Prior knowledge:
By secondary structure, this protein is α+β, with helices and mostly antiparallel strands. The radius of gyration is 24 Å and the shape is flat. Helices cover 27% and strands 32% of the residues. It has three domains: 8-97 and 189-219, 3-Layer(aba) Sandwich (D-Maltodextrin-Binding Protein, domain 2); 101-187, D-Maltodextrin-Binding Protein, domain 2 (3-Layer(aba) Sandwich), CATH 3.40.190.10; 222-289, Alpha-Beta Plaits. The chain is built from nine helices and 16 strands. The structure holds phosphoribosyl ATP and zinc ion. Residues 13, 16-18, 55-57, 74, 76-77, 99, 101, 165-172, 187 line the site of phosphoribosyl ATP (PRT).
Amino acid sequence: MTTDRSRLHIAVQKSGRLSDQSKDLLKGAGLKLQGGKNALTARAENFPLDLMFVRDDDIPTFVGDGVCELGICGQNVLEEDALGHDAPRTETVAALGFGRCTLKIAAPENVAYSTGLLAGERIATSYPRMLGRFLAERGIAAEIVTMKGAVELAPRLGIAKFVCDLVSTGATLEANGLAAVETVFASEAVLVRTLKPVAPDLAERATALLTRINGVIATQESKYIVLNAPKDALIEIARILPGADAPTVVPLSGRPGYYAVQAVCQESVFWETLEKLKAAGASAILVMPIEKMML
Ligand code: PRT
Ligand code: ZN
């Protein structure tokens, strides 16, 4: 693949668990994407950015080598790659809040597990470097069996006694008679950028894109809250509002001693939060989504 050096390139997973949300994030940042379903690349019409669709395992290499200035992939894939290099090749610039999973060691359900049981056993995994580090840090000598996929089948096939695999719901482990016993690494999808030099104008565009993406991420969690409250409740209400800087407080006309409070909350607003606000004296509480935000 040759690349046009007058445009930015972002490596995203071609087809898999991160693909749709990666593209949605870029669309949410205002990019109009061209390119068919099976294309290897897609062009943003309204921004100097090309998407390159690759396997998730290749994304650290594409970004590390500087073929793509940016990339979206799981921290699990990045960490496994980083452990194979002497120096960092990519920099994480935003955690994206999707693709959450945990690399866990699992044992057959009928095993009364303790960490010491791993010693001398075989453990099947697609993440040999992270598992190796986990074992070395605990001084455990076990044999790592590297498998590309279907790791959960290893105990049944007699390949290994334990497995070390990604878990999200836990259904796969359960279906294979396995139970998680150790946590090796917690992961989510992240946006990374290359540590290779980037032309100043492209670096500037990358920073502009990052600002937009951070705005999208902030917007996903954030809510705009409006409520009415008596004067003596204002301090307590400001304390309860999650992740809000100084709220705007405006007197209500025709209701002496009462104020309208408006605030952007940058953390989740739960029903529990509303109940607390009500108990503190707030009424007519409205919670609204925020469409765009630039911090
Ligand atoms: O073709 P390509 O190489 O690009 O895709 P892939 O098949 O290697 O990756 P894919 O699409 O399965 O996962 C991409 C990324 O999603 C991973 O690198 C993780 O960062 C993230 N992710 C989040 C997961 C999971 N959750 C996950 N549950 N990746 C894999 N799994 C697998 C796991 O390996 C196990 O087989 O799902 C199964 C367990 O799921 P539960 O829900 O049964 O626990
Ligand atoms: Zn993969």
